């Protein structure tokens, strides 16, 4: 007889066999083995396959349906044809984004990921990202506030492109979940932590917020919190569910930390702590 037993947060494999003698069964031998890690990895694998399949199914269905509409000459006018082609293009871009995110995350989690060791002016990076999102914010009637001190905020060994990817992801999320008339703020300032000099970067929005029960899991792959933060059907700006996992990996590759505070109905704040000096090896 064999089976698995769940004890609090652990999983144990139990195998039992009878001890036989001429008179019959004398007793039993039981072997217990801690399989918590194997169980967790197997669950991660099955969840990953299920989530990838779910993310790919919708764009594939739309690509097939709209391409069949073109083949069957269902579109009656050039305008309808252009609309169908636009949907096909948007969905193919979304699938490409998912594949790129999966490849990025796979490289990071397998250890085949190195950050560039270069001097980065965080203040200039914040200003550039702020300018990049200004037009998008105005179109959505969102106030985008950028704030950096006059003195330079320098990281002595960092990857500017990867940090821009982090800020772009956080601001994109904030834009998707912040209503018209509200504000988003991105700021940077010097900070001290663990006896070392850091730069603190804050991205704060006045959006719908994240439920408290979801906060511990938002950096996991494919995890999407409440329905208000999930991609709506046909949304061209929907995320892949991998963005925050990638963000966390990039920040930790810089020996930094990222945290989140949120309240439903009031907004969300992401805080990054990035060390000024390179990590000692």
Walkthrough of the structure:
By secondary structure, the protein is α+β, with helices and mostly antiparallel strands. Helices cover 41% and strands 28% of the residues. The longest helix has 36 residues, at 36-71. The chain is extended, with a radius of gyration of 25 Å. Residues 226-237 have low confidence and may be disordered.
Structural descriptors:
single chain; alpha+beta; five-stranded mixed sheet; three-stranded antiparallel sheet; 5 helices; 28% strand
Provide a compact summary of the structure.
Helix content is 41%, strand content 28%.
Count of distinct strands:
10
* Topology pattern, helix = H, strand = E: EEEHHEHEEHEEHEE
Strand order of the largest sheet: 5-7-8-10-9
Largest sheet: number of strands, sense, barrel closure: 5 strands, mixed
Total DSSP helices? 5
> How many whole angstroms does the radius of gyration measure?
25 Å
User: Which structural class fits the helix and strand makeup?
Assistant: alpha+beta
Tell me, what's the shape? extended
User: In percent, how helical is the residue content?
Assistant: 40-55%
Give the percentage of residues in beta strands. Answer: 25-35%
In whole angstroms, the N-to-C terminal distance is 50 Å
Weakly predicted, low-confidence segments: 226-237
Name the average pLDDT: 84
